[in-house]
Amino acid sequence: MIQDLRHIRAFLALARAGSFTRAATELHMSQPTLTVQIKQLEAAVGVKLFDRSKRHVALTPAGRDLLVPLERILIDIEAIAASTEELLEHRRGLVTVAALPSVAAGMLPRAIKKLSESYPGITVRVYDGVASTIAAMVKAGQVDFGISSQTYGDRELTSHVLMMDRLCAVVAPTHPLARKRSMTLHELAKHPLILMVKDSSSRQIVDLAFDREGLVSNVAYEATYGTSVAGMAQAGLGVGILPESMAGPSRLHQLRIRGEALTRRIGIIMRAGRSLSPTADKLKQTLESVVAQ
Asked: Please, which residues bridge with residue 222 across strands?
């Protein structure tokens, strides 16, 4: 069995050169070393590969039979090595990420832009969705990692905090509440609310906060995406509750929610026991640097 690539390179060089001297020069090794490697290869395959004379070295029939297969093996292995080197040096690669809509529209594009400036060969594919969808995609291996509200008690996932995202109330600039700068949950309970759907991380935080205060929220409208919540609030349909990362880019008036802090922890979500590829890890590092700025 052939166990050393040096033997394959020695065989191919000698087959091309037809001379131990010329082949040794091409491989930058001594002639005795080349001779030893050829003998080791012949011992490994169990047949004589070269007919030797004082002036010339020629392939035997067995050697000719091995020439093309060994050339193909070396080409394939060198192609794999080159590809791996490109990935390790981040010259090219693909990263797939699942992210909350607020992250996919805000922080993530900034990180991708920063990454592309240094590593233009890296492509980032983004899927946005609610927290439950992101967790399912990470578990199924459909994405390299997720950016979502932190998970607890799920042994299939690991996470670490990337950023803290506080929730706020939003209204149209013409809304009567636009004169205020803050509100309590008790005050919010008196108004029609526009909230994210129940399986979103933001909605779960809002519902838990109202429950702790013994309040019933007056949910007038629900939406899957923050842009829809913002649009309905802009139309004057009620008071929206959104993460500040979503509310910031809009033209809505923001009101701080006084009292209990309504905050979600946004983290990098990964499959437990799995490592990131070098390219995915580079995007993760870039995200962390963008958040730290």
From this structure: 195
